[in-house]
Amino acid sequence: MFTSSMEPTLVSRCAWSGESKSTQQYPSDVHTSVVFTRSIPSGTCFGPCVLQGSMDSIAFIAQKSSDNRNKAYVFRVDPEALSNSALFLSWLRLIQTARNSEEQNTEAFLKAGQLHIRTTREVRDEEELLLWYDKELCHLLGFTDMKREFSTDFKCTRCSQMFQHEYPFLAHCRFLCPQMKANTWRSQDFTKHMEAHSLSKRQHK
């Protein structure tokens, strides 16, 4: 296992684009993981990451979700590095996706139209960051409705693939199933949904 505390220059050279497709190979596919060099309390926020105005600029977190994880590259990060907005996207691309709520310790959320993450519990030093979405983004991405429709056996009704954990199952059914219809909630539909949601929140303030 390779451990590094250096800036992830590989990811810095691979800037995320909202036009990227779900089939693109990400730098995080190299089995990276991120651990903090010191403990961080629950509710600590990092960011922002400016969105590209499409579903892909948020969905990449789910698209790298998997039942199995191999940690070939471990990056030890001072939490202050994630407070630097210029470096935030680079580190965000290296954080692995949680497989279920039990192991999740960070969540992605929207604030003023930008992507942030925050710790959902205390993260101890040398503990790996494992990320998923907050309730609002789960709703915007369609996961909330999906959880109501599917049973607890984590079996895709389209291709019959079985999963061991909830989050990889949701990501597969929502974005990655090869049997999924091409017109299932396109990126422009997501953008409109986000705009309507933001307007609704402003009206209720």
From TrEMBL:
Annotated SET domain residues: 21-134
| Keyword Transcription annotated | no
A Pfam family that the UniProt record links to this protein:
PRDM2_PR
PROSITE patterns given in the database record = SET
Q: Which UniProt keywords apply?
A: Nucleus
Subcellular location(s) of the protein: Nucleus
User: Would you kindly state one Gene Ontology biological process term found in this protein's UniProt entry?
Assistant: oligodendrocyte development
- Which InterPro entries did the record assign? SET_dom, SET_dom_sf, TR-Histone_Methyltrans
Q: What is this protein called?
A: SET domain-containing protein
Q: Would the keyword NADP turn up in this protein's UniProt record?
A: no
According to its record, what are the GO cellular component terms? nucleus
